[in-house]
Amino acid sequence: MAEKMWAGRFQKSLDAGVNDFNSSIKFDSRMYQEDIKGSMAHATMLGAEGIIEPSEADAIVAGLEGILADLDAGKLAFDPTSEDIHMFVETVLTERIGDAGKRLHTARSRNDQVALDLRYYLKNQVPELKELLSNLTEVIITQAEAHKKTIMPGMTHLQHGQPVTFAHHILAYAQMFLRDLGRLSDLTKRLDVMPLGSGALAGTTYPIDREKVASALHFSAVTENSIDAVSDRDFVVELASCLSLVMVHISRFSEEIILWCSSEFNYIELDDAFATGSSIMPQKKNPDVAELCRGKAARVIGDLNTLLIMLKGIPLAYDKDMQEDKEAIFDALDNTKLALSTFAGMIESMTVHTDVLKAAAQKGYLNATDCADYLVKKGLPFRSAYKMTGELVHTAIEKGLPLEELSLADFQKVSPEFTEDIYAALDLTACVNGRATYGGPAESAVTNQIANLKKNLKTV
Ligand code: ARG
User: Fold this and answer.
1) C-alpha of residue 29 to centroid of ligand 1, in Å
2) Which of 353, 371, 389 is the last residue of a domain?
């Protein structure tokens, strides 16, 4: 363990166990690029403002470039006994360039430095997350385009409700992921604010130029309150919340996939490359990917809870509790990214059993609402039509028939308004395509929905 930078005030060196306990390098080393680039911008600004000698600024920047290149190339290893990535980089810099390295931390604290690193790192993650979400949405759209005519039972309470199409059903998930994309875009506004210059909590006496640092690092704005800037982890909570909602969406979809590939439903079959077998039951084909996605949703929601609970009781400004933010958000990020890409592959490669879906839709009297609507169109009040249709459903259940196989005499026993055209009205495709309201399951409405989704995906 190297001597601590803050050793001057202490008479004893740090207990080795405490050093381990305190250290964050195991997990914050993943922000090394952001940390070094932040330091380069800071040193450049210090040189330009005459706070340090321009030659020293140049030496610092060159030294940092070398460290960055060596870390990128795997030529420099992180010291596991370092307190954190910030201390590690500064120590290596000073070893390499000598005294000029000791000037890097002028007008800066690790509190504003870590706030910068984390904002910068998370901001850089957003494009990849958006790419993964857009890709999943496109995969869903492609499956939907192939199934605009595939009738299936639409359910409420997991009971047959009204006929819809497979396209319309899965596009509900595309809408959720589009909203997730929108939330990430919105969050970017709050990530895109540069905290360096806030110091430990009370700014600095040096004549720094915060705007210069912000623009060098491509941040759109600088933070407004030094205390808030070093205490704020709202952006971490917000991202974890976006990721939790993404995972909730994936988890709901997973639950349906798991049901749909059971032998009871048999609506879909997963590709062999996206399913697993059993060590003992030779016939098994298990939806492990979907189950693991559902499981990972729990852990990402757990990460969000960790962050909220970590923040709720700590006083302003920085407290060491905040170091716990990184493992939680990195875990949420890693697992959401993994889930997004694996889940998309599973959806893309699954086979939809259109015949099974159609047969399922023919059970459960999905066209009962349409039967009632038929009578309403003949002038009856909906409540009366509803009751009469209920009687017809009862007759059909007793006879073990779907509604459309009752005789015209059976229909007319309930109401003389029924004529031969009731059979066309009860045809499932007609029932679906009759629901052509904006946002409905009719093929025309779904075509429109897909066009809007594609347009919105480009701008979100
Ligand atoms: N490793 C710390 C963290 O991740 C960096 C900031 C430390 N600041 C301090 N004053 N101890 O939060």
Assistant:
1) 13
2) 353
